[in-house]
Amino acid sequence: MGQPVVSVIVPVYNVEKYLPKCLDSLVGQTLREIEIICVNDGSTDHSQKILEVCADHDKRVKLLSQKNQGQGVARDVALSAATGKYLMFCDADDWFEPSMCEEMAAAMEQSGADLAECKSNAVMENDATTFTARARWHEKARNQSLSAGMVELTPQIKNIKRVNMVQWNRIFRKDLVNQYNIRNVCTYYAEDVAWTAQYLLVAKTVFGLDRHLHNYLIRAGSTCEEIPNNRRYLLETVDAFRAAFELARSHNFEASHIPEFLAPFAAWRIYEARKLKRRDALTVLEYAQEKLAPLTVNSLVEEKSPWLAMVLRGEIKAAYDQAQHCQRREFLGITVHRSQKQWVNRVEKNKKWLFGVEYYKKLASAETVRKYWLGVPVYVSKKSNGVTRRYLLGARVCKKTGGTCSVEDLMKEARKFSLHHKLQIEAAALHPKTFGEFKNSLAGRDVVLVGAGPTMRDYRQIPGAVHVGCNRAFMLDHLKLDFLFAQDVRGINSFVEEFINYQGNRCVKFIGDALEKEHQIPESWFLRTDNARKYKTAYWPPSADFYHALPLHIDTLPLLNSCTVAHPAMQFILFTNPRRIFLVGCDCTVMAQGHFIKGGKDDENLQTDMSSDADMLRNWGFMKDFATLFYPETKIISVNPVGLQGMFIDWNQKEGEPCPSP
């Protein structure tokens, strides 16, 4: 058999009861040019043996295995192995009608659509004629297909009322999946939502078949039946929609259409949080509010989903925080018992009174629980760094050690993402005024970046070059700077007045507005500084994807503050698109003011901070990667290098070596 027409992907986990029927329906397809990729996701029953027997009888069955990591990871493993022109997905407890693959592939071939979909039969286990409310919902959702024939997926049509998020009754183009690198961002729950939402963002046409070709089994114990009371599912659903937002932003899709496409479904899933325990519901609401910050609250969100608008504004969470529950018990008109439970800023206050006397009080947060009887603290539980300590009447009775809560890690990531979004909005308003006029302004010229490292004293001025300085670089007597960068108070607090009054070569001074408030340059200094402009800066440990995107949009995104002002200055220089960049005195840390390699100190008054050596070199490596990717014609030359030796083109100017050719 040549290249398969269709790759059918089947994740498998403990489904020995249903797997044979599923496999029989796939190997019996009328379209023979298919491959069936089964991924055993760490099953502990006889699923592996069933798969092996099937693979022995039909070579089109490809068997892959992994430790249990969830359906999302299993599907990604299968996607990497798929060789078919089209992709289809089948749950191991569902089954295809015999002609499903043939009819779906023919629809794609004849129409040239980006995806095709058919209708589905919802079947209740043990009773095919009795449908629960959930079964009826599935029946309606899976048969809510678009009209038969070709339909253009305009932004107006991409709406949950017209296009649902399931995979199983559809066929997809493999080349489109590869082009946009569509992968699963969720593991156990909502992985189909995350993947399909991304695909629908890039798809332009869909072909509808008015045929019931897929069979969906509704059974107790399946992943979908756990959804209503599952916090992890709701958190992963939020991740699914964030993935779609990220894909849309990275490819500059029309932002105003994203809420119309996703908001109603996102809101409906987050609404399920009301069924959870209060603490779990608060976690989901806070996570959604911060993770979905890019959606913002606009008129479109208000119109399509007022619930989601309330979540994004924090109103639902605030209502939970202020909620209280009171009970009274009376006997002969006298209140004999009263209890009151309320939550303020995620701290539970639970009090009880007997004949007006408070006999019980509980104060509980995520980290600490305290219980009082008749005003005496009898029980305390404290959590810190994965360790739980419990005390009874002041004596420690238990110590429990465990790992970091994954939800807390997710919350930290959500807060970081939300904070960066806030900075992004501020930078988009400020940076065009700060940097706009300088884009490509130095094309064809030489630019020298002068850092604060000791080797700057050995530098001899390159004739005709533009000079960009960092912090105290302006103090060199033989050099007049054209631009000067300072990003926080630590860099200039020893020579404030000199920095403020420096003229240079009509020097333009860029002053960073740092995240860390204690390190911000005071507004009074900025207002007194000649020819000063402000820019937004954010400290993030760089990753390849994030860092490569960041300097590309210097006019709209905060500049990277990675422990050295040289990196924002370097982003600015690349933005001007020069012929060559010379790095002088850039091989030091900001606070250390010395070389960031052992033995590099050459001044008794300079201290070398070795702890940041690896981070500094890594961050410069990212800068080199970015310059190579987006500015391949620009040469970067290290002058008298120490810490940066071997990273860029080295030029030992003080020993009289000739300058590298342009």
Detailed description of the structure:
The protein has 662 residues and is α/β, with parallel strands linked by helices. Helix content is 34%, strand content 25%. It contains 20 helices and 26 strands. The strands form 3 sheets. Strands 1, 2, 3, 4, 5, 6, 7, 8 and 9 form a 9-stranded mixed beta sheet that branches. β10 and β11 form a beta hairpin. The chain is globular and about 90 Å long. 39% of the residues are buried. The model is unreliable at 128-138, 140-146, 403-407, 541-551 and 597-612 (pLDDT under 50).
Short description:
The protein is α/β, with parallel strands linked by helices and 662 residues long. Helix content is 34%, strand content 25%.
Q: Structural class of the secondary elements? A: alpha/beta
First-residue to last-residue Cα separation:
56 Å
Model regions low in confidence, pLDDT < 50 over at least 5 residues: 128-138, 140-146, 403-407, 541-551, 597-612
**Helix share, percent:** 25-40%
Strand content: 15-25%
Largest sheet features: 9 strands, mixed
Helices, by number, come to 20
Mean pLDDT: 77
Overall form: globular
As a whole number of angstroms, the C-alpha radius of gyration is 31 Å
Total beta-strand segments: 26
Topology:
Blueprint: E1 6-12, H1 19-27, E2 34-41, H2 47-57, E3 61-66, H3 71-81, E4 86-89, E5 95-96, H4 100-111, E6 115-124, H5 133-142, E7 149-152, E8 170-173, H6 174-179, H7 191-202, E9 205-218, H8 231-250, H9 258-271, H10 278-291, H11 299-304, H12 306-312, H13 315-322, E10 324-331, E11 334-344, E12 347-354, E13 357-364, E14 368-373, E15 376-384, E16 387-392, E17 395-401, H14 406-435, E18 446-450, E19 466-470, E20 483-486, H15 489-492, H16 496-501, E21 508-513, H17 523-528, E22 532-538, H18 544-552, E23 559-560, H19 566-576, E24 580-584, H20 613-630, E25 635-639, E26 649-651
Parallel strand pairs: 1-2, 1-4, 2-3, 6-9, 18-19, 18-24, 19-20, 20-21, 21-22, 22-23, 24-25, 25-26
Antiparallel strand pairs: 4-8, 5-9, 6-8, 7-9, 10-11, 11-12, 12-13, 13-14, 14-15, 15-16, 16-17
